[in-house]
Amino acid sequence: MAEAPKYIFVVGGVMSGIGKGVATSSIGKILKSKGFKVTAIKIDPYINVDAGTMNPTEHGETFVLDDGYECDQDMGNYERFLDETLPEINYMTTGRVYLEVIRRERNLEYKGKNVEVVPDIPLEVIRRITQAQQRANAEVTLIEVGGTIGEYQNIIFLEAARMLKQKYPRDVAVVMLSYVPIPGNIGEMKTKPTQYAARSLNSVGLQADVILARASQPLDEKRKEKIAIFCNIPPERVISAPDVESIYDVPANYEKDGMGDILCNILGLPPRDSDLRDWQKFVEASKNGKTTLQVAVVGKYFETGDFVLADSYISVLEAIKAAGYSQDAKVKLSYLDSEEYEKDPKKLEDLKNYDGVVVPGGFGSRGVEGIVLAIQYARENKIPYFGLCYGMQWMVVEYARNVAGLQGANTAEVNHDAPHVVIDIMPDQKEKMVKQDYGGTMRLGTYPCVLAPGSVAAEAYGKTQVHERHRHRYEVNPEYIKQIEEKGLVFSGKSPSGVLMEIAELPKSQHPFFLGTQYHPEFLSRPLTPHPLFVGFLKAAKERSLGK
Ligand code: GLN
User: Fold this and answer.
1) Does ligand 1 come within 6 angstroms of the Cβ of 473?
2) Which of 21, 103, 410, 480 could form a disulfide with 418 if both were Cys (CB 3.0 to 4.6 A apart)?
3) HSE-CB of 223 using CA atoms within 13 angstroms
């Protein structure tokens, strides 16, 4: 352990959406591969106390940690790149920080002092950063500050960075991720926006130590020098970050410019060789898959204006891809809007062209009847199907309606007066709904699940007890289990008490892969250790593709 913990703040200039999360994860990956103990923190400048109350098309996927905290999707990137399980303290929002300061003020913890935005809010931010560092015993703590430099929202977090740097000048580094546009009509890379971003950063008392220049192309020497002079850093600390084929290419790409050693140098850490061999093997495998599998993701959180936003399901997509690589296959994902099937059921025929169908998690009633049609189609046409949370609940509803003869079966979430409420709300959840106590109150985080020996699930996992992360309010209604099981659907995973149904599946003899989980397996999939159920699903998809 280095004598003093080191902190790296990653901030964004010019505009959002240029990949701060991947940049932070990649820097962490490089430092971890050098043998340092690393942890990563995400700060979101929202009033929302957690990410659980935000619509995925607004904010992207809500990621769930082991301890049940609902957070930003970047936490998923960190877990995947670093192969670490991160705790709640590693994520904070403006709302979270204020809530804590106000709570402590109410508890007289400030001992009669006048509590002020500055310094008390940044001090709370620093307190949380320090706690996360201690908890992980990290030699290097990365802190990604959400938003863009120059906006009002994140200023208080930049103030925390400034205060920490003032206290430990040698132990804090600032990496600015910037965007260098190449306007079509000029065809030349323009550095001015980056220069302004660097100055805005200066105006809050911070100087970038490293500038990552995101662009569609690599930086040339001339631009590198220009950025160096105008942004007040040595040219070797301006790192080219061009678009790459896969986000997993980024660590090696940064290392080409010596990112790891540059940071060690700034922070006074001993230089060490990085070892990205296993990672690179996986990156290569991800590009050289022999077969290409076509997987349909049927859902509803895709549209934002004229764009398709795959970010709503980022962990699902990464889990599918990772499992594909393990099968020597590339996966081509298509995002299909379930509402289309409601408008025109003939479109269901298109699903025949896919090797597998996934229905990911979701909420509410829009598009659900289209989802039922897609599931029925996959079941009847023996297309491998994998349902995640809402995708499992609708799989049960579909089976109840179309096989178990429970006409009008539904989930209470959509129609609590349905003749057969096969997915229902648990009594403790009902109470919360009555009190409108929505934030952070679902069944969240890791729970154990016991698998039936010999089931498709148990075969895939290779064991009969697993722990998985949850995020839902509704459950399979115990009153209908017998009737549904008698008609062939198997509840092969249950809570240890046997009350909650965690996995539903059809036996292999009846369907190549028809399985749904009440939990979210995607949150535990990591690039080098893909999730066993995603692997099982992709194996079945591959068999279908080869048999075609
Ligand atoms: N809406 C469902 C529930 O609350 C499923 C949630 C999900 O898919 N994450 O139980």
Assistant:
1) yes
2) 410
3) 23
